[in-house]
């Protein structure tokens, strides 16, 4: 396989939290990811406490909470009204008894009931078969495959001392865990990546955490909010400089992108900054980042335009001809997802559109292997299996369930709800693992 690439561009995001709340109540689906987030301490404590009382597992409310922080201060009254509406909707949703979030165990254990009940095989060349369900301790938003150890890595984050790294061994079904330093983060913006030396890294708000699975050593480093390469408006409009993406170069050093920052940081295994790679004009705070055989692929924040390709020394190689939001890498193949459909991105930036299609959600996810790939489309709520040529080989749909909730005016309305996928990866041709943030489960499906 030479690889498939999937491209994306946001279309028509709500202009305020109030409109986001209307959208949430009208269809009870995950609102668009908010890449522009102000000072995270503001509104955090009050809203997230209320939200946890409603449901510690309901990913819909957590995403709405994050978008709340991107509204201008002049809209604060509307924002608070919307927050109340969202919480009320969540409480009523839980009381309705539909898709209740279950309290997960202290460590994941196999389960036979959850997301599969609302996920059914839809029209497609082949139907998916569910093989495994693993209960998680709470919502998880990132998933990394460790091919060397045939394992999956994820991190559960919550306030207090319950946050932890988890490794799920695919062959044995056993789970191991390592503690994460106390955090106030929910993990909504976390990225988890496995380094060439076998260590596992995760972004946590303004921190990086590295765990060595062999020694058990856990190290962390916190970035200052101010950065020499940050935009002048980094703390005003769309404020913040948190780590937005992470990958590793051919020497095993970490490359870290930061929101609103015009350079990449290069860090060694001690979490010390070695140097910086200046980004080309127009590329600031990449939303996704991969390094494939010495070529750095950087996607713009929110998938608003083409990706750029750089050498590891920072020389510009070129730009894609399609907008890009997310990447996936397998061997020499690089895939990306964007607004125009499925493409292939070569190391010289040549972009081949394999399948035209409008992917309109920043929550779309993808993963590729040597025999094809899988893409989660948040809009229709489906997982599609893609061949190397871009053809759809199989499809699985997540059923929508009608429920009664209160809208911001207090009126009861019928809305549709379904399970939401936070991350997806593949460990072989047709074999896909995904994290369901609604039911807090890790699920294995295959064609």
**Gyration radius, in Å:** 20 Å
**Overall average residue pLDDT:** 75
Give the tally of β-strands. Answer: 32
Distance between the termini: 18 Å
Which strand-content bin applies to the residues? 35-45%
Backbone structural class: mainly beta
Number of structural domains: 2
Helix content: 10-25%
For the report, how would you describe the main beta sheet?
Answer: 5 strands, antiparallel
- The CATH H-level superfamily of the largest domain is YVTN repeat-like/Quinoprotein amine dehydrogenase
CATH class of the largest domain: Mainly Beta
CATH architectural group of the largest domain: 7 Propeller
Give me the number of helical elements: 4
CATH topology of the largest domain, anyone? Methylamine Dehydrogenase, Chain H
List strands and helices in order, with pairings.
Layout: E1 5-7, H1 17-27, H2 44-54, H3 59-68, H4 76-95, E2 119-121, E3 129-135, E4 144-146, E5 151-156, E6 164-169, E7 175-179, E8 192-194, E9 200-204, E10 207-211, E11 218-222, E12 243-248, E13 254-258, E14 263-267, E15 273-278, E16 288-292, E17 295-299, E18 306-311, E19 316-323, E20 326-330, E21 333-338, E22 341-345, E23 351-356, E24 365-369, E25 372-377, E26 382-386, E27 392-398, E28 401-406, E29 412-417, E30 421-428, E31 431-436, E32 441-446
Antiparallel strand pairs: 1-22, 2-27, 3-32, 4-5, 5-6, 6-7, 8-9, 9-10, 10-11, 12-13, 13-14, 14-15, 16-17, 17-18, 18-19, 20-21, 21-22, 22-23, 24-25, 25-26, 26-27, 28-29, 30-31, 31-32
């Amino acid at each position: 396989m030479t690889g498939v690439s999937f491209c994306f561009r946001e279309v028509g995001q709500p202009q305020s939290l109030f409109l986001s709340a209307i959208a949430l109540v009208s269809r009870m689906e995950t609102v668009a990811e908010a890449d522009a987030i102000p000072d995270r301490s503001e509104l955090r404590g009050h809203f997230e406490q209320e939200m946890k009382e409603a449901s510690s597992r309901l990913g819909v409310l957590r995403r709405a909470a994050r978008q709340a922080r991107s509204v201008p201060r002049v809209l604060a009254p509307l924002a608070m009204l919307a927050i109340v509406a969202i919480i009320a909707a969540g409480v009523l949703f839980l009381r309705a008894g539909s898709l209740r979030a279950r309290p997960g165990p202290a460590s994941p254990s196999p389960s036979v009931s959850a997301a599969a009940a609302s996920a059914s095989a839809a029209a497609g060349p082949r139907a998916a078969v569910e093989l495994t369900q693993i209960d998680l301790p709470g919502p998880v938003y990132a998933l990394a495959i460790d091919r060397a150890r045939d394992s999956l890595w994820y991190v559960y984050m919550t306030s207090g001392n319950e946050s932890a790294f988890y490794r799920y061994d695919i062959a044995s079904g056993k789970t191991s865990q390592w503690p994460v330093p106390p955090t106030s983060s929910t993990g909504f913006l976390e990225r988890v990546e496995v380094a060439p030396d076998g260590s596992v890294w995760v972004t946590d708000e303004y921190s990086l955490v590295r765990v060595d699975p062999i020694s058990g050593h856990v190290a962390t480093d916190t970035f200052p909010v101010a950065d020499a390469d940050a935009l002048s408006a980094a703390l005003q409009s769309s404020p913040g400089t948190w780590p937005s993406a992470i990958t590793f170069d051919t020497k095993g050093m970490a490359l870290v992108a930061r929101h609103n920052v015009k350079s990449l940081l290069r860090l060694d295994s001690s979490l010390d900054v070695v140097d910086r790679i200046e980004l080309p004009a127009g590329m600031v705070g990449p939303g996704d980042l991969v390094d494939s055989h010495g070529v750095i692929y950087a996607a713009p924040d929110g998938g608003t335009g083409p990706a750029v390709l750089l050498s590891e020394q920072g020389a510009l190689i070129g730009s894609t001809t399609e907008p890009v939001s997310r990447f996936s890498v397998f061997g020499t193949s690089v895939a990306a997802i964007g607004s125009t459909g499925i493409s292939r991105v070569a190391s010289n930036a040549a972009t081949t559109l394999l399948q035209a299609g409008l992917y309109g959600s920043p929550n779309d996810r993808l993963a590729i292997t040597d025999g094809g790939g899988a893409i989660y489309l948040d809009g229709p709520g489906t997982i599609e299996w893609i061949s190397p040529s871009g053809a759809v080989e199989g499809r699985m749909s997540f059923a929508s369930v009608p429920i009664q909730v209160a809208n911001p005016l207090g009126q009861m309305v019928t809305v549709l709800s379904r399970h939401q996928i936070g991350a997806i990866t593949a460990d072989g041709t047709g074999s896909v693992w995904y994290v369901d943030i609604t039911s807090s489960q890790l699920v294995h499906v295959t064609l």
